[in-house]
Amino acid sequence: MIRIAVNGVCGRMGARVAALVFEDPELKLVAALERPGHQSLDKDVASVAGCGETGIKITTALNTHADVLIDFSSPESTVLIAEVCAKKNIALVTGTTGLNPQQRERIQHFSKSIPCLISPNMSVGVNVMFNLVAQVSKMMGEEFDIEIIETHHRFKKDAPSGTALRLAEKICESTGRKMDKDIIYGRSGIIGERPMNQIGIHAVRSGDVVGDHTVVFGGLGERIEITHKAHTRDTFARGAVRVAKFIAQKPPGVYTMSDVLQIQS
What is the pTM of this model? Predict the structure, then answer.
């Protein structure tokens, strides 16, 4: 039995992760964490997860031992809980987006003592898409323009999405482009002709869209589009549960979804 703690449990993702963990016979939910001052503190996690009574109260501190902590919170909260995990020897799985380079560096520092997996998107389909986009980018060459379009619900706080940024990173890695040089975020005004190596990223926020990502490879006379559409947040939540099972007994270090899915880069 793998003991699981969930951080950010009152968020859309955290609540679904908690429910799936509670229903999984291989896992045991042992802690549900949320930020100080949240209105659901001290309530049974069932009040936000929509599952049966768990006996697990929502708290601000991790006061019990867990094998793995699954985190869908904010960048600041993720760094704080990563430090707690390192001190308590708990594996960390985080899908929090918007982490800056310094925050990522802090988590990588903690990975010297615990196994850590940071992924902007834990769906199987999206991680296959990462691999496909890298391969196609390399094959298409400089003659094809590359644009990334992501659409999410109106409540999403960061833009562009972590998934869109990871798609851009994969394209840059496979083609020799640079994130700080060749990426443009939207366009406005008289911009002139499109530079050869430019990658455009466009963020759309609309209604209750769970998450759509499209990479467009546009040439003269033809176009290829690779698209992933998430129909439900359970796509990501089930991925996080799968990762927790994978990482529970792993040695310290940084792991990726490619490790989980055995995708050869």
Answer: 0.82
